[in-house]
Amino acid sequence: MSGYLVNTVAVVAVILVLASAYVRFVPTVPDRWHIDPLTAASPGQAGVLARVNGGDIVPIGYDEGSAELLARLDKIIRATPRTKHIAGSIEDGRLTYLTRSRGFGFPDFATVTVEQVDGQSFPVILSRLRFGKSDLGVNRRRVSGWLSALEQRG
After folding, report:
1. 92: domain range?
2. In this structure, are strands 94-100 and 47-50 parallel, antiparallel, or unpaired?
3. Whole-angstrom Cα distance, residue 12 to residue 122?
4. Which CATH number fits the domain that encloses residue 129?
5. Strand, coil or helix: 84
6. DSSP code of 107?
7. CA 109/CA 65 separation, integer angstroms
8. How many domains does one find in the chain?
9. TM segments (predicted)?
10. How far apart are CA 10 and CA 78, in angstroms?
11. pLDDT tens digits, residue range 28-45?
């Protein structure tokens, strides 16, 4: 019986190691994730959309240009642990980032742009997971944190 238990534990451990390696090392194709958040549908359980009209989170507006707001948001996002820029530029008006979770390193993708409404600039952030059907609110908390940091910095 103990041999069976040892074999079962060993098989489970190997499966976990292989799954973790797959999640960490599967190639990222930036074009797949660098999509326009203004035309993308809200991802529902698979992520979150911060947008003034029709988003899961409604951000506040700012009296500054799109490029300036995007540059401030870029600085905040790049300071997020385990996050790296993978596509786009401020000049293009759209940026995409990859953030990995602690532990297994599950990848989440966030694409950011700015929408102009009634003379104000509103950040638009589409954040979604790559694997699974639920992120347990991780993307919502991350995006809310970015928006709070943006508000605190005026």
Report:
1. 28-152
2. unpaired
3. 47
4. 3.30.530.50
5. strand
6. E
7. 25
8. 1
9. 6-25
10. 39
11. 888 889 999 988 765 555
